[in-house]
Structure formats: structure tokens, C-alpha cells
Specification:
alpha/beta; Rossmann fold; six-stranded parallel sheet; three-stranded parallel sheet; 11 strands
Length: about 280
């Protein structure tokens, strides 16, 4: 069994990205996060992205508003980032307080700065296979498979989860790579039977240990996108200890997809910078 650790993937991608950035002064490329309120997870992620971006030589803008902010105030803050030529990529962090209309906010995000593929514009491009910014978590799944030399062409990939940020886009992206794709979800009848057919399982439903060893055929590859708390521990959607005895390769949680996702974010910010400053 091969453990598909994310660090090796992230390091390889960072090395290539660093080469592309040769000659650029520190802070030339800038990303921004927009967060509202004091959600612990969102603030932790903002802290982590700030550290990651700055360590890589990016500039970083943290636009934070209080939980009492009105929708108009948050919209105005987003517009300011949209119109700031020094900012190349923007990541609105969820969740936001209930008075904020997040769908309206995302629709107002400049698609050329939409580094996590949230806007309808980028969703459309990804769906049509015409480029655009794809969600970074979905890109991380493919980066792991590619790094470890696991082919997609002709394989049956079962995606468990249908969210706009991972399930749907990763299904379309592996389809683009000539895989045969099944999408399952919480209302799929006889989920185990579907998963058992998979050469590659991508688990992204957000439910701790929902994929068990009896659901995975011998030799399958398992990509676990889930991050859940269970008995005080961080675990994935896959019962790692059990499934690792039947799978040929599996990502750990933590230490798998998540560690690659942040690197995909750095790449996306560079792509946004490059599109504006080089591809003109």
C-alpha cells in the first residue's frame, strides 16, 4: 500500500512555481482574503494562508470585518479588492454571518481574481473544459494522482459528494481526463455497491469514516478529501486504518489533500498575475 502523502506533491509544485517567479521582487504578487466575523475555522485558515503566502514571497491583504457588518459594507470591501490593481487573487472565506448574502457576494467577485473558482463564470469555463479557475481542492486531487503516476484514462472514478467546491468540479475534471465517472451522494441508494465498482474513489461528502473497508475493492486508489472531528481527532471521510488494508494507495488525513490545496492556491494567484501582466 502506498501512502499518498501531500507534502511531496506540494514541494514539487512549489519548486516549479518558484522557478517561474525568478526575477520577481518579493511582494510583486499579492493575494487577499475577505472574512467577516469571528468564525474560528475561517480565522485559522486566514492565518495559515497569510503565513504560507508571505513565506513564499507573496504580498498578503487580510480584509476583516466584524460580525455586525452589513451586506453593503462587505460588498464595498469586496469591490475595493476587485478594483485594487495590486491584488491579483481574492478568496472570500466562509462561513459569513446570516445577514450577508454570500451568493450575491460571490457573483460580484471579479472572475479574473477568483482563485478558488467560486464564480458562475469560472464554473462555466471548468464545466465546458475551457480553462478558468477550478476549485483548488479539486485541483489538489488531480495533482496527487499525477505526482504518484496514477492514470485516469479508462478508469472508473466514483466521487462521493456533489458540492460545487469539490464533488462536481473534480468529477468534471477527471472526465476531461478520459475517466468514466459516477457521482454519489447522501441520497444514493446502495452507496456501497457503487463505491465497490471504483478503480479510484474520491471521498468528499464531509462525513467521518463513511467509506469503510467493505465498500472498497482490493487494489483501489482512495483520495480522501474530508476533514472531520471524531473523538477529538481530525479524520477523513474514509476509515483510514481499515481501508488501507485493501487499497493499493490512499491519502492520509491530515497530511494528504489539504496540504496540496494551499499550494494550488499559490499557483492560482500566480496564474492570475501572469494572465494580467504577461498574457496581454
Amino acid at each position: 500500500m502506498i501512502e499518498l502523502r501531500g507534502k511531496a506533491v506540494a514541494d514539487a509544485h512549489k519548486e516549479i512555481l518558484q522557478e517561474k517567479m525568478t526575477g520577481l521582487e518579493s511582494g510583486t504578487i499579492t493575494m487577499a482574503v475577505l472574512l467577516v466575523g469571528d468564525d474560528h475555522g475561517a480565522n485559522m485558515y486566514a492565518d495559515f494562508m497569510e503565513k504560507t503566502a508571505k513565506n513564499f514571497g507573496y504580498g498578503f491583504v487580510r480584509k476583516q470585518l466584524p460580525s455586525t457588518a452589513t451586506h453593503q459594507e462587505v460588498y464595498d470591501a469586496l469591490m475595493a479588492l476587485n478594483n485594487d490593481d495590486a491584488v491579483h487573487g481574492i478568496l472570500p472565506l466562509m462561513p459569513m454571518p446570516k445577514q450577508i448574502h454570500t451568493e450575491q457576494l460571490i457573483d460580484a467577485l471579479n472572475p479574473k481574481k477568483d482563485i478558488d473558482g467560486l464564480t458562475t463564470y469560472n464554473i462555466g469555463l471548468v464545466t465546458a473544459g475551457k480553462g478558468g479557475f477550478a476549485p483548488c481542492t479539486a485541483k489538489a486531487c488531480l495533482a496527487i494522482l499525477d505526482h504518484y503516476g496514477i492514470p485516469l484514462e479508462g478508469k472508473h472514478v466514483v466521487v462521493v459528494g456533489r458540492s460545487q467546491v469539490i464533488g462536481k468540479p473534480v468529477a468534471l475534471m477527471v472526465l476531461e481526463r478520459h475517466a468514466t465517472v459516477s457521482i454519489c451522494h447522501s441520497r444514493t441508494a446502495d452507496l456501497a455497491n457503487h463505491v465497490q465498482q471504483a478503480d479510484i474513489v474520491i471521498a468528499a461528502a464531509g462525513r467521518a469514516h463513511m467509506i469503510t473497508a467493505d465498500m472498497v475493492k482490493a487494489g483501489a486508489v482512495v483520495i480522501d478529501v474530508g476533514i472531520n472531528e471524531l473523538d477529538g481527532k481530525t479524520v477523513g471521510d474514509v476509515d483510514y486504518d481499515a481501508v488501507s488494508t485493501v487499497a493499493s494507495a490512499i491519502t492520509p488525513v491530515p497530511g494528504g489533500v489539504g496540504s496540496v490545496t494551499t499550494t494550488m492556491m499559490l499557483e492560482a494567484v500566480y496564474e492570475a498575475y501572469h494572465a494580467r501582466n504577461v498574457n496581454r
